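> tool_call: predict_assembly(chains=two)
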Amino acid sequence: MSARTLRITLIVLATIGLGWATYLTYVHYSGEAPVCSLKGNPCSQVQKSVYSELAGVPVALIGAIGYLVILGTLLIGDDERARFATAALTLGGFGFSLYLTYREVFTLHKICEDCVASAVIMTILMCLSVWRFLRGGETAGAALDDDGGPPVEAGTGVESAAPLGTAS
Amino acid sequence: MSPVESDEEDLTRKQRREQAREQRKAMEEAEAAGALRRKRLIQLGSAVAAVVVVVVVILIATGGSSSSGIPKSKSVQTKTANSVQQLIAGIPQSGNVLGSPTAPVTLQYFGDLECPVCKEFTNEALPSIIAKYVRAGKLKIEYRSLSTATSNAEREGAEPAEIFKTQQAAAYAAGKQNKAWNFIETFYREQGEEDSGYVTEKYLQEIAQQVPRLNLAQWTAARSDPAFASEITADAQAANAQGFTGTPSFLIGKTGGAMNQLTYTNSPGEPAFVEEAVEKLLKA
């Protein structure tokens, strides 16, 4: 997978996550029942539970802010620091998703499919962004080679700091 | 040595030097790549460690124990408390009765706090009835208990009958401070999933904490009053005498006069069946 394709994939995933978390934040504040196909709407019970907030802040809102910041790190560029920021933030998001899933399964004994959907998106984001960070700009160079551009040296931190849409 | 041989030897020497330089360069690049990879792994490791610390702190701060009840979030509790306040604030309460003591019509509401149909009646039909008749001093509503959903519920470590008495006594104990209806309304609004065993001591405490200005120490002390056990038994006997087997069940009549059974025709969430009966009694 070229660096560009990987970055676009991450941007798409983060945007879907942002949209989903924004919807769940709206549901939290409006008091409406969230979309849920499971019997007894456990999603509603989970999202009205005491664990739906952290220090008074809805976890859905924390998630939306998280996705927004991740999206920001993906859009600012494709250098070493941006890749690390994305990987670190998605690791944080993954840890937070693990905590919420623990609360669902072991404390509330309910599974909220809306929350699971967000956790799955965050897990994929984490895996891809960690892989992207570890491989650095190496494949970005290969991608440029494919496109006929000059090869790029890995690890310089400035190898592909071009905005998305240009050959990065 | 001929000049040609000398040239060839120089070329080979040059090639060897070139090769050695390339090998050195390749080694340096490999070392640099290895160092970069190690640096990245250390950075990721630090991020993972930081995330683990934060998650553990959150877990500890939010309590690590397992609970079968689902306590509501603060914003849900605030919303519930506000809607209950809006509904019944300013209406006189006495024990388990909501409404003016001199109201000409009395409705007895037999309910089980865990019964979802009662929740439907309380959340959907009662607000209109309270606004039109109770607030106007024309009707008073007496809450009486009848174990239905709770007695069907399976529990671990507690008999359903005991659970029913405990939760009902908790409501009646709030009535000692004339706040039984705040407790009942809050309970129905935050009712959990049937048969899930959500009514724990913690759950009851959280309901009580949402009742504005309820003295929790007095409420806790009042819960063990044996008078409530007698009241619950009397409620059950009254319900049996009427042949009530389900909740919500109703008796209605002129205050101090004979009480007649009232049943809902379409849905317990529609207030019309109560409103029509009240209108009829007011005109009689």
